[in-house]
Amino acid sequence: VQLQASGGGLVQAGGSLRLSCAASGRSISTTAMGWFRQAPGKVRDFVAAISWSGGAPVYADSVKGRFTISRDNAKNSVYLQMNSLKPEDTAVYYCAGRGASVITRAPNAYNYWGQGTQVTVSS
pLDDT tens-digit profile of 99-112? Predict the structure, then answer.
């Protein structure tokens, strides 16, 4: 599976961005998907994950209530709607896919990774 993330950019604090992750090579309809982020000098952190069916998504506490993960299996894509952005949300955002349908927050449980898209939030 190849994953292509897009939609990053520069936005002012309080603004919104929508990240997209398009999969190719095989269907992700039975695969749990996640978004992670990595700021300079920091480890890669979990942001959100969604099951194969789209039900009961899971979020990091730091983004709960501001970010929404969704998927469109017909389009083989996953999305991350980010609202009320803060400067501390600045990072490279990666989409990732598991070889299983169950959600997990652990980065090492994901088998497929996109190339990342930069999100910069100015104060």
Answer: 888 899 999 999 99
